[in-house]
Design brief:
Protein name: histidine kinase
Catalytic activity: ATP + protein L-histidine = ADP + protein N-phospho-L-histidine
Largest sheet: 5 strands, mixed
CATH class of the largest domain: Alpha Beta
GO molecular function: ATP binding; phosphorelay sensor kinase activity; protein dimerization activity
EC number: 2.7.13.3
Order of helices and strands: HHHHHHHHHHEHEEHEE
CATH topology of the largest domain: Heat Shock Protein 90
Oligomer: single chain
Number of domains: 2
Organism: Streptomyces atratus
Strand order of the largest sheet: 1-2-3-5-4
Length: about 425
């Protein structure tokens, strides 16, 4: 009996009853129109008028379901009462495309049509079944002129079968409700499920979320990674000359203080964006740019000869920030793999259409140990350049190591990345 009267069957039955209630305004409006077109002294008791009004009410319901808010309401009711399988998700949000609205209209019409039929059966059949089941036990009921029963109903074998007939009617109503509920549950993922456009929009949102996460991860990697490399090297050098060169120790401690203060500020900015839970726009991604390059080179922990050609003040903000991070990551790699005494040559050239960044450093005599989880710096540099429409390359060059990046200066659509 569980498929007919279990919890899921009862919830689906309630869902159908709600559909019948929603059908009533359309049905009454259609009944009024049909009554004017086909005059009848008693339109509410005319079966032909009611069937015609029912047929006219469904298209009216379908038209109203074309409105965008209809899908969220239908989805909420289906999730709560219809028992849709969990592996077949329903769509979220208003219907934004024509296909989604048409599917929603189909679902709404099916829900109200089946709900109207089941509601009518629920209202009429139980009293009829109760009356039939009571006939064997009530002579006055059998002799009632209102019912107008034939004399054959007084035969004993017919009276013995009447309770079973009434019970069969109730079971038939339950079967109809269970079938209609199962039909709605089966069609819900098709009519209320995500359309191809919905799936594409969801994929684009996931891709945008991943892009933001990768962007923030690059910011943390470049800022914190560079700071830790510089601080580690400077602290180690200060420890070795602690007794013999106090002046160098003071300079190293000052550099460590400046590096950590700057990095904490950058870390707070990135973590603030993470806590907000919103995608950072160009104005929110405020970080150091090329105008802060002097402070970076002064406290980076390696000797750097820097040559700047052109006016870096004309470089767009997004390009300037990314160029700063590229230089920072290049210096971190030189510091990490070559140590503090490795000289680095940095060249920044501002041309009419692009910004070129070139960083040369000698290769270490022996390969540096690979850090667990490391190796993302060069990939992050390449990603930064690609997002701006440029390119970056890194590899051996003339007996040393060269990092070269070319970033276009056009900013159409890039400030929002």
């Amino acid at each position: 009996m569980r498929p007919l009267f279990g919890r899921r069957a009862r919830r689906r039955w309630l869902h159908l009853i709600i559909g019948g209630a929603l059908l009533m305004p359309y049905f009454l409006a259609a009944l009024v129109v049909v009554g004017r077109l086909r005059p009848d002294p008693a339109p509410f008791s005319s079966v032909s008028h009611q069937l015609t009004a029912f047929a006219c009410a469904l298209p009216m319901a379908a038209v109203t379901a074309l409105l965008a808010p209809a899908r969220p309401l239908s989805v909420a009711a289906a999730r709560a009462l219809c028992g849709v399988p969990g592996d077949r998700p329903l769509a979220d949000g208003p219907a934004g495309t024509r296909q989604a609205r048409v599917r929603t209209a189909g679902w709404y019409t099916l829900h109200l049509g089946l709900g109207g039929v089941v509601s009518a059966l629920t209202l009429t059949m139980p009293p009829l079944a109760g009356t039939i089941m009571a006939l064997p036990f009530s002579r006055s009921l059998r002799e009632s002129r209102t019912l107008g029963l034939p004399e054959v109903m007084d035969r004993p074998w017919i009276l013995a079968l009447l309770p079973f007939a009434g019970l069969a009617i109730l079971v038939a109503v339950a079967c109809c409700a269970a079938w209609a509920g199962a039909l709605l549950a089966g069609r819900a993922p098709v009519l209320l499920g995500p359309t191809p456009q919905d799936r594409l929009a969801a994929a684009e949102r996931r891709a945008a979320d991943l892009a933001v996460r990768n962007r923030l991860a690059r910011e943390l990697h470049d800022s914190v990674g560079h700071a830790l490399s510089a601080v580690t090297l400077q602290a180690g050098a200060a420890r070795r000359v602690l007794d013999s060169d106090p002046e160098f120790v003071r300079e190293a401690l000052a550099a460590i203080e400046e590096t950590t203060r700057r990095t904490v500020g950058e870390l707070d900015s990135v973590l603030g964006l993470l806590r907000s839970g919103e995608e950072p726009g160009a104005s929110e991604m405020t970080g150091p740019a090329l105008d802060a390059l002097d402070g970076l080179l002064k406290h980076c922990g390696v000797p750097v000869s820097c040559a700047v050609r052109g006016d870096t003040g004309t470089v767009p903000a997004a390009v300037s920030r990314e160029a700063y991070r590229i230089v920072q990551e290049g210096l971190s790699n030189a510091l990490r793999h070559g140590g503090g005494g490795v000289p680095v040559e940095l060249r920044i050239t501002v041309r009419a259409a692009e910004l070129a960044v070139t960083l040369d450093s000698p290769l270490p005599e022996r390969a540096a140990a690979v850090r667990p989880g490391g190796g993302r710096g060069l990939r992050g540099i390449a990603e930064r350049a690609v997002l701006l429409g440029g390119r970056a390359e890194a590899g051996p060059h003339d007996g040393g190591w060269r990092l070269a990046a070319r970033l276009p200066l056009r900013t159409d659509g890039q400030e929002s990345r």
